[in-house]
Amino acid sequence: MQRKVVQTRLSDTEYTLLAAYAESHRMTIKDAARLAIRKLTLRDEMNPDDSMFRIFPLVRKARHTDGSDRHDYYLYGWDK
């Protein structure tokens, strides 16, 4: 995998905070910056106000209780 180079300018305070974080976690400043970028861009959280979470229930009541056995019939109209 080819990597891209990212450069930025930090204030003295930002650099000191980044260096302190890296040192306390026993990592390089480069790894600490990479971790910060990952945490910022790859958030693992949901927005509870998202409309997707307000449309439930998607299914009111199961009409077919044998769906795992006869799924071809229900989807395509024929048995497997």
Give the topology, please.
Blueprint: H1 12-24, H2 29-41, H3 71-76
Helix pairs in contact: 1-2
Describe this structure in words.
The chain is mainly α. The protein has a domain at about 10-45. It is built from 3 helices and no strands. Helix 1 crosses helix 2. The chain starts with 11 loop residues before the first helix and ends with a helix.
Q: What is the makeup of the main sheet?
A: none
The stretches of 5 or more residues where confidence is low (pLDDT under 50) are none
Counted by DSSP, the helix tally is: 3
Give the termini separation: 43 Å
Secondary-structure element sequence? HHH
Query: What characteristic shape results from the CA principal axes?
Result: elongated
Outline of the structure:
By secondary structure, the chain is an all-alpha fold. Helix content is 40%, strand content 0%. It has a domain of 35 residues.
